[in-house]
What does this fold into?
Amino acid sequence: MTPRAAQQYAAERLRRAGVPSPEHDAAELLAHVLGTDRSRLPLVDEVAADAVERYDALVARRAAREPLQHLTGEAWFRHVRLEVGEGVFTPRPETELLAGWAIDEAGHYLGETPAPGRAPVVVDLCTGSGAIAKAVAQEVPHARVHAVELDEAAYRWAERNLAGTGVDLRLGDAFTSFDDLAGTVDVVVCNPPYIPLEAWESVAPEARDHDPHLALFSGADGLDAIRLLAVRAAVLLRPRGVLGVEHADAQGEAVPAVFSATGRWTDVRDHRDLAGRPRFTTARLAP
Ligand SMILES: C[S@@+](CC[C@H](N)C(=O)[O-])C[C@H]1O[C@@H](n2cnc3c(N)ncnc32)[C@H](O)[C@@H]1O
It folds into this structure.
């Protein structure tokens, strides 16, 4: 079978199943089966029968709405590769913006911290696969990066992904951990659970059935974790340290309001993603 025919058949099957990016996923899965990458598929003349069989099996699982990244076993986040699968939240491209903000902030802090020349201290609360922490460690090599995850299964994925990066990974509750860093952190970054419990029905099957629920839902209005974060980040940060937190697109006013209401934060701002949707809030701890 030619790769083109195999891909067209698979894309049609995925389209009928309601998969949002059928052509892309059909190509990614074929590249995975053939041990190549998507850009090199046009160089392949023929897909052998055993490869067609393996491809078919993966396409069937994708049509049943298993996340693409669970089928390939990997997710790319900025410039880092992460291993992902059952038990851990799949990192999303939109979170790369929040990570980019943390990277810029950490980069700028060198020389501006209370002790000039001190390495910037970054804490990734709710690290999941370790995506944000790993990206910061890679792009700001002089930063001291710490990360925490509550769920044991997710923690084990993070352990694997952060091995050899120098990130200090801990198993525990983000909103009580790191007493040892209190008052010293330059950047707190967090992609917490933020979906309202009642929005269960509207969550895509890939997320609803395969992301851990602890990673998705956070109380009736989705803001429980963010309220705790507004208190805990104020303990961890040094005066004038900064915080960035992702939120749902409907929370572009509610999340800044959580921070403004405490009276502890200045420069509270919301940021949009590339599609123009409200995506994350940043704030600075009042001096
Ligand atoms: C939306 S996921 C984000 C994961 C990762 N930071 C990313 O952006 O891909 C939220 C993560 O927070 C973890 N989590 C939820 N409540 C937590 C808590 N109280 N302390 C630490 N981690 C928590 C979940 O298990 C999940 O891994």
Summary: The chain has a mean pLDDT of 94. The first helix runs from residue 3 to 16. The pocket of S-adenosylmethionine is lined by residues 89, 91, 95, 126-129, 131-132, 148-151, 154, 173-175, 191-193, 212, 214-215, 225 (CB under 6 Å). The longest strand covers residues 237-246.
